[in-house]
Amino acid sequence: MVLFIFLLTLGVGSVLSQCPEDFERHGTNCYKPMFIRTNWIEALRYCRTIGAYLITIKSADEQRSVEGIIARYHGSFDIPRFWIAGGDMFSENEYHWYMEAGNSEMITGYTNYDTNQPDNYRGHEHCLSIEFNGHTARWNDKNCNEVKYFLCQAKMETPSTVIGKK
Length: 166
Fold this sequence. Notes:
Elements: H1 2-10, H2 12-16, E1 24-26, E2 29-38, H3 40-49, E3 53-54, H4 60-72, E4 81-87, E5 96-98, E6 104-106, E7 127-132, E8 137-142, E9 148-154
Parallel strand pairs: 4-9
Antiparallel strand pairs: 1-2, 2-9, 3-9, 4-5, 4-7, 5-6, 7-8
């Protein structure tokens, strides 16, 4: 009985939630580095085909988690640059996160741009990437047609079975 009450106070969903197969859990987020290079729109599409979306980084904790993943796989990537879900392709200098099912939200609060970024170099940079220097990963706007690695992010899954039911 005590265990049941304890589970209810925590919220059974949070106790049972897990990441989809092949995704790594970091806090309440699930991440999967992709060992293929493609342009920004194809990275966005690819993540959606596996039930995920390009990563969004909305806090310093999330930034550290992403840096940890990249650092762990650092030797596996010839050029440690990755697409993230941000961009200003619809309105210059108004950066949004482009997430699941075509939803977007303005990037407010936490950012981690590199020095003098974003700069929209030559008027052709509208998609955000992170570039890992061996210690940290800073954000930069890039041409959406460049090819880079990417990381997908998925929501935690809650098993559909009910405890105690057969």
